[in-house]
Structure formats: structure tokens, C-alpha cells
Amino acid sequence: MVTSVKIEPGSRPDALKHPAVSDIEAKRRERAARKSAARPEVEVSDEARRRALADEAVRNAPDVRADKVHRAKMRLQNDALNIDSTKIAERLIDDL
User: Fold this and answer.
1) CA gap 77, 71 in Å, rounded
2) How far apart are the C-alpha atoms of 35 and 84, rounded to whole Å?
3) pTM
4) What would the pLDDT profile of 29-82 be if each residue is shown by its tens digit?
5) What does residue 56 show for φ and ψ, rounded to 5 degrees?
6) 3-state secondary structure labels for all residues of 39-86
């Protein structure tokens, strides 16, 4: 035997009108309200914003400054650098 139940729009079936079901619904609403109210707020200081911008600038900067490398190569090729090998050797020995 099949029993049909007609549910009208806006009405609730008798089973959903039971107090236990209402308690469950109330608890669900309460949990949802607590979850949304419990979200922490975070404030970011101006210093932290500046540091974040600086970090981003460093990350986006090239690893090698091609212009300086090019100038140094040109000076080496043209013997424009005054390299004192004695001073270099002395500093190497001093660092030992």
C-alpha cells in the first residue's frame, strides 16, 4: 500500500514539526552564527605593508645587474682596471 503526502508550499510536514527536529535546526543555526562570529580579524601595520612591498621588489629584481657586469667586462678587456696583484695577494694571505 502506497500512501502519498501532499506538501503545500510554505508548509512543513508533521514530522518536521516535532520538537526534536526544531531543536536540531536551532542548534544548526546557533553553530552557523558562532562560526561566522568567531572569524578573527587581522590588521596589517603600515610597516608590514612596506616590508611586503620591499620583499616583492627584491623577488622581482634580476639576480644579476647586467649593466654592471657589462661595464666590468669592458674595463677588463680595455685594461682600464688598475689591478694591483700585490695588494690582492696580501689580502688573501691576511684572510688565511
Assistant:
1) 10
2) 71
3) 0.32
4) 888 777 766 667 788 899 999 999 999 998 898 888 889 899 988 888 887 777
5) -65, -40
6) CCCCCCCHHHHHHHHHHHHHHHCCCCCHHHHHHHHHHHHCCCCCCCHH
